[in-house]
Design a protein that fits this description.
By secondary structure, the protein is mainly alpha-helical. The chain is built from twelve helices and four strands. The strands form two sheets. Strands 1-2 form a two-stranded antiparallel sheet. A two-stranded parallel sheet has the order 3-4. Strand 1 and strand 2 form a beta hairpin. Helix 2 packs across helix 11. The longest helix has about 30 residues. The chain is globular, with a radius of gyration of 24 Å.
Length: about 325
């Protein structure tokens, strides 16, 4: 399966048109809630131990909120809409997303542990000489390479957990490794391509992150959809509201009939949903049985003064046919 990063990013931009506000608001909450709580405790004169505990708790909360951002981005990629309230939906499975965040953090930091231990022992025994310094540099380089490999392998684990939150965390990790197999280089290129954007966002005193982070999360969501070999989105209207008819997707209960914006959401979903034109595996597509035909008596049409215009079907934004062609 050929994945073109240029087209992935183009699809993400198209999805964000008209949806940027919801993700920007979610990103603002993702940044401000933890930092505000930590600043509040520090300004109240909390001791170093209390500040450390509060900071640790906020890091955990921010990891779960990151899953919320992924949920919003994935909802936009599949259904064409998302709401900032979905940011807090993953707290329904706090334990699972907490352990998944711990595993992702360990993948980024654990590979540097040998270098840190070596430097600590060498320094305690009289400092780093030229030989030990070279060894330390080599351990750091190897640790960086291993960290990048593990980070890429686990890059879609949150999306897997979002689709099937009842699945054990380890199984989600294995599924992420399986999905990314053969596409690690593409994912690494995608991650590296955002370094400049994140630097620009930080140099703008963090204001630019309100634009960069939605773009990043939406691009990751589109990439994940392509890894799953998803072709298009189907909509099913039921008493519980509009839901995506995609195999294995968990119902987060965000769109229901008692949701104030449900009618607007339905209209927006019908008009702006993005369809990825790409081959679908047989596992993804499920044939739906046709409803049984019931005998009926022909009815003679009655003339009416009112004329009902013919429906032209759902209007959906589609990508060019050459989206994933070589």
């Amino acid at each position: 399966m050929e994945i073109k990063l240029k087209n992935i990013k183009s699809a993400a931009k198209n999805i964000l048109l008209g949806n940027y506000g919801q993700l920007m608001l979610a990103v603002a909450m993702y940044i401000l809630i933890p930092t505000s709580v930590v600043s509040l405790f520090e300004s109240a004169g909390a001791g170093p131990i209390v500040s450390y505990v509060v900071s640790t708790i906020m890091v955990v909360i921010q990891g779960i909120l990151s899953a919320g951002l992924s949920l919003i981005a994935l909802s936009m990629a599949r259904m064409g809409f998302g709401h900032f309230r979905m940011l807090f939906a993953p707290f329904k499975y706090t334990d699972k997303f907490f352990f998944l965040s711990v595993i992702n953090a360990m993948a980024g930091y654990f590979p540097f542990l040998p270098a840190a231990i070596f430097v600590y022992i060498s320094s305690s025994e009289g400092g780093l000489d030229s030989g030990n310094f070279i060894i330390a540099i080599l351990l750091i380089i190897l640790g960086f390479a291993l960290a990048m490999y593990l980070t890429v392998a686990l890059s879609v684990s949150r999306f897997v957990m979002i689709d099937k939150p009842m699945t054990p965390v380890i199984e989600c990790v294995k599924k992420s490794v399986e999905l990314i197999k053969g596409q690690k280089v593409k994912m690494l290129q995608l991650q590296l391509s955002f370094i400049g954007w994140f630097l620009l966002g930080m140099f703008s005193l963090g204001v630019g992150m309100l634009w960069v982070m939605p773009y990043y999360y939406e691009t990751m969501a589109v990439f994940y959809r392509q890894l799953r070999n998803e072709q298009q989105v189907f909509f099913t209207v039921s008493v519980e509201g509009l839901k995506p008819d995609v195999e294995g997707v968990h119902d987060w209960g965000v769109v229901t009939d008692d949701t104030p914006l449900s009618s607007e959401v339905r209209a927006e979903a019908t008009e702006t949903s993005v369809v990825l034109e790409t081959p679908v595996s047989e596992e993804t597509v499920q044939e739906k049985p046709e409803p049984p035909h019931e005998a009926c008596t022909p009815v003679t049409p009655v003339a009416s003064e009112e004329t009902i215009p013919e429906s032209n079907g759902d209007s959906m934004v589609t990508l060019d046919d050459s989206f994933f062609e070589d």
